[in-house]
Protein 1
Amino acid sequence: MKNLLIATCFLLTANSFAQGMFGKNPYRNQQNWDQQRVHYGYYLGFSSYNFKFDYKKSFYEKNGSDEILVEPTTGFNVGLVGNLRLMEYLDLRFEPGLYYTRRKLFFPHIQNPDQNTRDVASTYIHFPILLKFSALRAGNIRPYILTGISQSLNLSSNETSKDDNYQGRFRMKKWTANYELGLGIDFYFEHFKFTPSVRGVFGLQDELIRDKNPNSPWTGDIESMKTRGLFINFTFH
């Protein structure tokens, strides 16, 4: 009976909360929040980075269909949010953050098992400038889409290293330009706003630094290597 009473109270409380947040005529929390000219926040989240490789014709002539394989892992993100209201449904956002990720590259055309893999650990300082297009607010929720550009500084790029893949050192450029596209939902609570979002990040520039040997089996026949990323962030304002 005690457990039944606790469960009943929980269900009634949850139902009341749901009605208050999402019901037909919910009480509108933070009614003047979106009228602020400027506001700030922070985010925590997860990321999964990948690479998109484009190859020269000579790569397939030498190696057939044995393209480079990328094994991504889940990294973490943390950062700040600065939001500038431009008009009713449009905001400008700056979301600098720290992103840590690791990718494992497998080169199937290299037979030596000691040389056909590379672990690529990257720590990025990410600088996105985004436009946020919000829908009409419905009760205490407001969906949006966003798009923009970003620059990423890779602190683990090895760009200045004199060693290359022949010494086991995979090298990338420090700075990368990207475009971004995402969507999310603003949830308005009594004392704060919570926003889960998902975003795709697409590198615009070739990031690979070639080995000194132009015939290198790791880099010689690669036309370009560009970042692809998926971010899931949880923002608090």
Protein 2
Amino acid sequence: MNLENFDKQTVHWGYFLGFNQYDFKFDYINDEGDVLVAKSIGFNVGLIGNLRINDYLDLRLEPGLYYNKRDLGFPGFSDINDYKREVASTYIHFPLLLKVGTKRLGNFKPYLVGGVSGSINLSSEFDSQEDNSGGTFRMKKNTLYYELGFGVDFYLPYFKFSPSVRGVFALSDELIPDNDPNSPWTSNLNNMYSRGVFVNFTFE
């Protein structure tokens, strides 16, 4: 048995590295064609603070930096300069999570994790005076989410290593409509929500 008393600590710290893939969910006013989203793989890095509640429950704070890029394709355009908008996002992400683990099985322990989070998008262009007519796609700066996932703790001789997969779903609308209410880019969009998948590797 490695690190036999590790989980008995009231508080411990760690860090994580990982990958992400973000998407958008759009709510449309009329059925005039979908906005296409070309997704890419981004990266995550951050810190972990863990508060032990009992043998099976932990409260975790995992602030991190998340970078990703999405390309949007708007229907109805033949010119690529009008059709395509690049959305590069740099999020400062603040999840507060409840980790529910099983009984430890030798040197590993499966768990479920879930909670709420908020983010600040440093690349949102929310204060830009230009909109899509000038080539700028704007988003709101602050977003709320709920998160659900699972992972496995592996107890190694000198640290605990935990790969995990988590789904992240926005609760708040992120769309900033164009200045023109008849904009061909945003006039048919009612709401826009981010959703994503995080794959994190934690070291505690």
Protein 3
Amino acid sequence: MTIIVDAPSNQVATQGKATNGPDRRRFGAMVMAAGAAGWLKSLPASAEARFIDFEWVDPSRDRAVPARLYWPAASDRKGPLPLIVFSHGLGGSRKGYSYLGEGWSTRGTASLHIQHVGSDQTLWEGNPLLLLDRLDGAADEREAIERTRDVSFGLDRLLERENPFHAAIDRKRIVAAGHSYGANTTLILTGAQVIRDGKPIGYRDPRFTASIVISAPPFYGETDLAAVLAMVDVPTLHVTTTEDTIRIPGRFSPVQDRIDVYSAIPTPQKALVVFQGGSHSVFTDRSLRNGGPLNPLVKRATMEAGLAFLDLVHHSDPAPMEEWSSTWKPILAAAPVAFLVPSRQADRRRRV
């Protein structure tokens, strides 16, 4: 591992190599164990991914904003890179969801994983009798706001001129993504807002052109979900499972909440993926005991769904999403329907 110094802010970043994804033989064995032998005949093994850790601090809030950047190898880069900025769930960290960072980067898409110090892995540390209090504090509205600021600040830092990566990022293809609490963060960054004292309060970041929302909880305490999500107008991919129930101390959310969030998004440019089986935490970096043989399949399918969705959004190309649906049909309860993007709608009107 080498050390890189971010000279302008004198922040230190570490650079390393992410672990390889499952090789073809191991992946094939998992498919057979899941009862889906005979499909996915030629999936390539994941190439080596590289990451860089940043120890950023937002001076305006005196708040640490650690981040991990997964960066494609030179052989995987073709022109300006799309960027996905990822927000972890309650109790997570920048090191989590590595399968997404590794998979996306080895396919030419960079991803920046933000760590939220007010709702990160430290929640599970300390006196267990005070865990409920810590969770209540982490789920507080103030922390929800700070999380959106973390993401915007991290994007600011990555795009500033002094950052060596800034010139290689395509400003028109920056995507917000997150799991669970991070999915709420993503929705706020792309237009979700609440009414306080008769006034709308939102923290939208207009740099995000699309979003990937994995296992989105309801907005706890809000009674009108449609009103909260009324201003979300970027193309959005929603991902969930038939067993995606949230059970943590003080919080419970049934699977239907995930569907309700999808339904409340007003834009027709949205897609819903529902896997057959798999718990709420199947999308985290937990072991195979969390979902058994289905676990790595859902992870890989989720990673690939994100890329296929972005081909649809940024290149008006529905073919990758259609191919994805065909490939992963054995583990899907509901597959996404490729919507028409504005450019395709215009082409259709001209032909008519």
